[in-house]
Amino acid sequence: MITIHVGDVVAASLAAAGACLACSIPAQTVRKFPLWAYQTYGRGALLLPLLAVMVGTLLVSVALEGQINSNAGLALVAAAAFLALVLVSAVLRFWVSHKRKS
User: Which parts of the chain span the membrane according to its record (predicted)?
Assistant: First the structure.
């Protein structure tokens, strides 16, 4: 029998809120984001996509091996969550600053 814990409900609600937030940002705004990120954050903006690809690739390989519950798998999940949080905060900062100008 499958049991649902409080942490599962919290994770699902956060994922749903993040999906709603990501879908509410207009496509025209997202197209202008890479240039703004480079102008605002400098060369550090180029590092985030590279880290995200590396962590995502490692996370998929660990998940396919069935080792997601190991220490390394949990560390990769935490790293992916951190990178997603940094990316979402940058997109929100861009969106809010873009809304203030209009």
Answer: 46-64, 76-96
Tell me whether residue 22 is in a domain: no
Q: What is the pLDDT of residue 1?
A: 64
The structure's pTM equals 0.63
Q: Which of 88, 89, 55 is closest to 74 using CA atoms?
A: 55
Cβ contacts of 44-50, under 8 Å, gap ≥ 24 = 48/83, 48/86, 48/87, 48/90
Number of structural domains found in the chain:
1
Q: From its phi and psi, is residue 66 left (phi > 0), alpha (psi between -120 and 50) or beta? A: left
For 81, the domain range is: 28-101
Cα–Cα distance, 59 to 56 (Å, whole number): 5
Which of 16-30, 42-56, 72-86 tops mean pLDDT? 72-86
